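// run 5 | inverse folding | seed 20
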């Protein structure tokens, strides 16, 4: 037991299951699945084994579909109902159980939110309420559809049991089928499945009852239940308290796992750094207070700090606390807390980029900070091999790429010195953290800095390294990680040429110049956006708050198009509207003049309008800082480059490429 967190490391019984501590991996869909078969790929087993290895009490494996009608393209579909899936599931269970961790698999039917486009099957739902998420209208479920769906749950439960899982968690949240029947928002039926609560609970109760009947009593059956749908006319916290007490009285369930929200408001359910932590706690606490003995699980939301987890338990708001993204970014969270190494935890920064962002692109989930997420077999625990020969390595550039390569190379036994021209480590991430309400992202480089120190990297700051200086260093290997910067000319993939007048004195600037304070914005600002991510919008918010009249001219059909899948858009967009930022979509700039700019609609290019613009910000193409690399190529025996100085990208690509080089060098 940890002295600092006594409740967290206290064992707990969930039905017949003895769990060694009160920490669980909240279900996270990882997309590690073979699209042809719907069976897990080996990455899934390695991912969970790595988390079990750290000593977590319980893993609730991310949602597995119980029916082909639960297709959510581009998110790949699992075939949990198919008994041929069992061997690959056994592999997962065996690897997790080997560490004394229990494992339950979440099973679900997506219902109304299914995407029918790929297979031509209709989505099915209690009523014909169209899905705003995927734009489909479901077929109203008839008796045989209801029987089919329940059969899928039952078969999946039997398969889970045969594969050796300790239980299943039925998924009745996030707006999916079991919730849809419960919900007056989705369920408009007038038969025995609609109307009063007993009718709306019928499908859920029948499903629970039939799953329960299909397996022995020592097999756990739990329910992830929406705590509040956050939808107009939808289920409220009070409704759920009522449902929960009825379910406890039914006596068929071993636990409830309570969270908040539907797929229409995923930006709350999987809140990024803009939202406050603990968003699931109030609804779980309400259920905890109302039920008697039924264990209540809750992933508080945006949990990284073990103190926060302990408080939820101390306050009696839940019996177990779950972590989702924090375990993607740091699989060793539990071990680090238990062993008093809390400072070493690689905090999830809740950017949502490679988790939610990848999920809704249909890509395997990863993490911008943790290159081993989804690559545990190759990059996981104990895969780092000491270098055969300890080399003297010079790393030039202290952004995330330079820091990661330095850290990994030093861990392998190399003598590494990192040179950074600024007085602080972090590169562009320090600028990213200056955008409104984005300061958490600095955690990426804070952790790298601490780990570099611990692995013995020497750092020389305030040193702008030249090619001559590098030659003088006489290093065995040189790694260039000098980054990239905005070009400022308006060159872009929209119109691949400079925007006329880009060099108008005193008018045109870059995001970096504004964020470092090198340039102050004028009273009217136009931000030209070919980026689609957070920088142009963050600048718009920042400058509007400072009193400028701001217009964003974006080439995309909406501003912040790349923020939508990451669930950041719904946090940023309202702020722009509140601040009166003007948004011009599908548009581009033709000409900058002193104090003004001509813009046009990309679909009506002759329709040109002139806007006042004391300052024009070019959030357009970025350019690599590769001069040092090119100068050194033929002057030193071994020179490598990583990160943005190869091609401008993001933190994740910078860190992954650096990590790979750190292992190879
Ligand atoms: C405003 C802004 C917001 C962003 N937001 C995000 C985001 O939300 N998510 C995301 O994934 N990415 C974001 N990015 C991009 C991301 O920060 C970069 O992709 C990433 O930092 C690249 O890492 P790097 O180490 O390759 O280069 P950099 O971060 O550019 O680091 C290069 C370092 O090298 C140093 N250097 C250069 N030349 C020399 C020299 N000669 N001698 C010594 N030192 C030198 C520089 O001072 C710098 O510290 C953002 C970028 C900006 C500008
Ligand atoms: C990429 C991703 C996938 C998720 N997949 C599921 C899922 O399959 N089933 C589920 O019930 N919740 C899912 N969730 C929600 C998490 O279980 C958790 O409730 C939420 O992320 C809040 O916890 P956190 O802040 O600790 O991540 C997912 C969350 C993320 C970020
Ligand atoms: S990608 Fe971002 S949100 Fe996802 S686990 Fe990594 S740090 Fe956290």
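// decoded
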């Amino acid at each position: 037991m940890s002295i600092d967190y006594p409740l967290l490391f206290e064992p707990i019984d969930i039905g017949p299951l003895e769990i060694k501590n009160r920490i669980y991996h909240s279900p996270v869909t990882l997309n590690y699945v073979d699209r042809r078969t719907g069976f897990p790929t080996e990455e899934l087993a390695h991912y969970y084994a790595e988390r079990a290895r750290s000593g977590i009490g319980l893993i609730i494996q991310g949602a597995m579909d119980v029916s082909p009608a639960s297709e959510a393209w581009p998110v790949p579909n699992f075939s949990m109902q198919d008994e041929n899936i069992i061997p690959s599931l056994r592999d997962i269970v065996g690897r997790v159980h080997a560490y004394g961790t229990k494992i339950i698999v979440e099973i679900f039917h997506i219902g109304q939110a299914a995407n029918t486009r790929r297979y031509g099957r209709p989505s099915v739902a209690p009523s014909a309420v169209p899905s705003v998420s995927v734009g489909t209208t479901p077929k109203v479920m008839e008796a045989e559809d209801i029987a089919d769906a329940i059969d899928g749950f039952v078969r999946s439960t039997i398969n889970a049991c045969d594969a050796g899982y300790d239980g299943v968690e039925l998924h009745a949240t996030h707006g999916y089928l079991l919730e849809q029947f419960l919900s007056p928002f989705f369920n408009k039926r007038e038969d025995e499945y609609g109307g009063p609560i007993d009718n709306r609970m019928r499908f859920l109760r029948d499903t629970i009852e039939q799953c329960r009947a299909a397996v022995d009593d020592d097999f756990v059956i739990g329910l992830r239940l929406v705590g509040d749908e956050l939808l107009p006319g939808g289920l409220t916290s009070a409704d759920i308290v009522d449902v929960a007490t009825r379910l406890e009285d039914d006596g068929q369930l071993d636990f409830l796992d309570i969270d908040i929200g539907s797929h229409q408001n995923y930006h709350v359910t999987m809140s990024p750094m803009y939202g406050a932590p603990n968003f699931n706690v109030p609804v779980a606490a309400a259920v905890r207070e109302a039920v008697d003995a039924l264990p209540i699980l809750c992933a508080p939301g945006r949990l990284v700090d073990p103190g926060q987890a302990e408080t939820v338990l101390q306050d009696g708001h839940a019996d177990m606390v779950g972590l989702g993204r924090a375990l993607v970014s740091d699989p060793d969270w539990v071990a680090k807390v238990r062993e008093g190494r809390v400072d070493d935890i690689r905090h999830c920064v809740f950017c949502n980029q490679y988790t939610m962002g990848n999920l809704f692109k249909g890509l395997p989930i990863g993490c911008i900070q943790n290159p081993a997420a989804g690559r545990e077999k190759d990059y996981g625990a104990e895969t780092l091999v000491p270098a055969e020969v300890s080399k003297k390595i010079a790393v030039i550039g202290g952004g995330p790429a330079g820091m990661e390569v330095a850290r990994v190379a030093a861990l392998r036994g190399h003598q590494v010195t990192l040179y950074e021209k600024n007085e602080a480590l972090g590169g562009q991430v320090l600028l990213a953290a200056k955008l409104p309400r984005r300061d958490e992202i600095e955690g990426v480089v804070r952790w790298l800095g601490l780990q570099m120190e611990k692995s013995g990297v020497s750092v020389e700051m305030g040193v702008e390294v030249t090619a001559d200086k590098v030659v003088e260093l006489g290093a065995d290997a040189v790694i260039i990680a000098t980054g990239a910067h905005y070009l400022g000319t308006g060159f872009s993939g929209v119109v691949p040429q400079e925007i006329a007048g880009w060099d108008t004195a005193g008018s045109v600037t870059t995001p970096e110049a504004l964020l470092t304070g090198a340039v102050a914005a004028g009273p009217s600002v136009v931000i030209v956006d070919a980026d689609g991510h957070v920088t142009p919008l963050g600048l718009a918010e920042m400058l509007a708050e400072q009193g400028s009249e701001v217009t964003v001219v974006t080439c995309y059909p909406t501003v912040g198009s790349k923020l939508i899948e990451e669930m950041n858009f719904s946090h940023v967009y309202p702020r722009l509207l509140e601040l009166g930022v003007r948004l011009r979509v599908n548009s581009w700039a033709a000409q900058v003049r002193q104090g003004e700019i001509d813009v046009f609609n990309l679909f009506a290019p002759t329709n040109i309008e002139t806007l006042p613009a004391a300052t024009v910000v070019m959030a357009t193409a970025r350019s690599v800082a590769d001069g040092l690399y090119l100068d050194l190529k033929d002057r030193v025996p071994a020179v490598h480059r990583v990160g943005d100085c190869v091609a401008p990208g993001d933190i994740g690509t910078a860190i992954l490429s650096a990590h790979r080089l750190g292992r190879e060098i």
